[in-house]
Amino acid sequence: MNARTITLLAAAQLAIGAAAIFARFALADGGPIAVSALRLLIASVPLAAVAAFRGAFRLRLWPTERRLALAGLMLALHFALWIASLQYASVAVSTLLVCTTPIFTEVYAVARARRIRGDILASIALALVGVAIVVGAPAKTDTPLGIVLALGGSVAIAVYLILIRGTDARYSTLAVVGRTYPIAALILLVATVLVHDPIPPVGATSAWGGILAMALLSQLFGHTALNAAVRTLSATFVATVTLIEPAIAAGLAALIFHERSSPATLGGSVLILAAIGIALRAEARTQ
């Protein structure tokens, strides 16, 4: 196992785990599609500039280009659905549901290999129990629409991770995200115009602060590190590690928005860490 990759992945979870908090501030004055578009657009500009400078766009293999275009669409769908779910569900429950990604990546892996890995399935089950304890019983604010939107976002990011995992090895991480981020941003910008989703006014400092934090911390650093990790680690392992995000989001939501969180947060967090440990050992044995 690459210790640097694991460390980078852990740091990325802190940045991504705070995204729900940043999104709540952004949604105070903007619509979910517009907020998603601005998040990806702001992150894409410096990334695309660096990618162009370093020649990351020179290699063009059309099967891979089509694969990355589809990945960009899935990324756009993920953010639009998940950020929209925050309007209909609590931060904790929305983040929990969107982090059920490893269930879908493992279903794909089992269907493809026709082999069930017991240790991975055990780690997923343990992690889901942990996040359920952290989140606690759903509140009245957790509507069916919020639950469906969050689960839809989970499926979309699972497809994205699978597509990225299978990308031609000659494409660097910079080449991959230099394509998928702008594609997702463009799709969301078009959607924003078509549905007339509101963009935060210039004077809405809290909303723009949330968007900038999502773009620079959660997206440019967090998700780019996630893309780098999934090139060397399995999609299921990377998705399982993201299950620590609900614990981060629930803690921050309780502190900032005074959202209720389970009194057993510590116990649930221990289960999550134990599940990640099981997945880590399983991944090490596989490699």
Give an overview of the whole structure.
This protein is mainly alpha-helical and 287 residues long. It is built from 13 helices and no strands. The longest helix has 26 residues, at 205-230. Helix 3 runs antiparallel to helix 9 (173-195). The relative contact order is 0.23. It is 77% helix and 0% strand.
Describe how the helices and strands are arranged:
Blueprint: H1 3-17, H2 19-27, H3 32-53, H4 62-85, H5 91-98, H6 101-113, H7 118-135, H8 144-165, H9 173-195, H10 205-230, H11 235-241, H12 245-256, H13 265-286
Helix pairs in contact: 1-10, 1-12, 2-10, 3-4, 3-9, 3-10, 4-8, 4-9, 5-8, 5-12, 6-8, 6-11, 7-13
Descriptive tags:
287 residues; mainly alpha; 0% strand; globular
In short:
With 287 residues, this protein is mainly alpha-helical. Helix content is 77%, strand content 0%. Helix 5 runs parallel beside helix 8.
Give the CA-CA distance, first to last residue. Answer: 7 Å
Major β-sheet, in short?
A: none
Tell me the fraction of residues in β-strands, as a range.
Answer: under 5%
pLDDT < 50 runs, ≥5 residues: none
Oligomeric state of this protein:
single chain
Shape: globular
Q: Treating each run of at least 4 consecutive H or I residues as one helix, how many helices?
A: 13
Summarize the amount of helix as a percent range. Answer: over 70%
* Strand/helix succession: HHHHHHHHHHHHH
- DSSP summary, beta strand count: 0
Rg, alpha carbons: 18 Å
**What's the rounded overall pLDDT mean?**
87
Structural class: mainly alpha
